[in-house]
Amino acid sequence: MIARDLPEGTGAIAVPSGADPTFAVAFGGGGARGLAHINVIEALDELGIRPTAISGSSIGAIMGAGMASGMSGREIRDYAVATLSRRAEIASRLWRLRPASFGEMFGGGIRFSQFNIEKLLKTFLPDRIPETFEALSIPLSVTATDFYGQREVPIAEGDLYSAIAASAAIPALFRPVRRDDRILIDGGIYNPVPFDHLKDKARFVIAIDVVGGPAGDVGRFPSSIEAMFGASQLMMQSIIATRLRTDAPAIFLRPSVARFGVLDFLRVEQVLRQSAGIKDELKRAVDAAITYAGQSDSS
Predict the structure, then answer these.
(1) pLDDT digits (tens, 9 = 90+) for 83-95
(2) How remote is the C-alpha of 171 from its chain's centroid?
(3) Could you give the CA distance from residue 257 to residue 279 in angstroms, rounded to a whole number?
(4) pTM of the predicted structure, to 2 decimals
(5) Which residue has the higher pLDDT, 248 or 216?
(6) How confident is the model at residue 296 (pLDDT cuts 50, 70, 90)?
């Protein structure tokens, strides 16, 4: 809903009584680039918009869970900056999550990724995020990918942490997640910005894409890791482009985060500064959408 009669300077959009438009928000995946979603949540707060529904993929599922739990953009920002700015504390928490034994480390062969992402999330996410979808204050749907079933899996009920862990289980970085007799990995593999899950949930759907694309000097060969993540970005952008041609949301925005890597979480303040312009961009887009809809309704 859009707040009305707010103090001057809040950025809220005036809407006639009884005619409040509804909004739903899709937060896309992109690793550390998804920290830019915090600016989006703050802008929605400033506009007085409380989404009727939220969807998310990967880091978007995590940010969506924060907003759906009732946290404000400012609270999410403060928590993210405080948590990700303390390198010693991060190292300590990660050390506690290391494999408990050599048997666990090398069981099934040497693995490049040893972190259990569900445990990682429970270690780093704020206590405000509840254990189940049903305890959220805003309906949330997150997407994961069924590795053997070869399909997208939307999750909107039951255990919340295993769902967002599955959605954020980036291949080669985190172990897959077992849930409901499925082996699940990163939801961005099939649906990087799940705005289609919000169809009929609100009059206006806002979608935020933070996938980005390979960036750098065209004369420099990428490393193996850079090539792997860059190829994933290109694949996801192809998926997004196809979905946009089929059924585009009312508002689709891309924050300026391309120069950040998927693991640049320690650069949280830089990501937030670089993507700050998305706040005004979103406010203009919301104003334009409401104005256009009002003109269409009156014609």
Answers:
(1) 988 877 777 766 6
(2) 17
(3) 14
(4) 0.86
(5) 248
(6) low
Query: For the segment 97-137, what is each residue's pLDDT rounded down to a tens digit?
Result: 665 543 443 344 333 355 789 988 988 999 999 999 999 99
Closest CA to 275 of 78, 27, 73, 36: 36
Encoding tokens for residue 235? 């694949």
**Encoded tokens for 11:** 């950025």
DSSP string spanning the chain? Answer: ----SPPTTS-PPP--TT----EEEEEPP-GGGGGGHHHHHHHHHHHT---SEEEEETHHHHHHHHHHTT--HHHHHHHHHHHHT-HHHHHHHHHHTS-SSHHHHHTTS--S--B-HHHHHHHHS-TTS-SBGGG-SS-EEEEEEETTTTEEEEE-SSBHHHHHHHHT--TTTB--EEETTEEEEEGGGT-SS-GGGGTTT-SEEEEE-------S-TTSPPPHHHHHHHHHHHHHHHHHHHHHHHH--SEEE--S-TTS-TT-GGGHHHHHHHTTTHHHHHHHHHHHHHHHHHHHHH-
**Distance (Å, whole) CA 265 – CA 173:** 14
pLDDT at 164 over 60: yes
Map 92-150 to HEC letters.
HHHHHCCCCCHHHHHCCCCCCCCECHHHHHHHHCCCCCCCEHHHCCCCEEEEEEECCCC
Q: How far apart are CA 54 and CA 27, in angstroms?
A: 8
Q: Which of 273, 233, 238 is nearest to 256 (CA)?
A: 273
Q: How many CB atoms lie within 10 A of CB 180?
A: 13
Q: What is the largest CA-CA distance in the chain?
A: 70
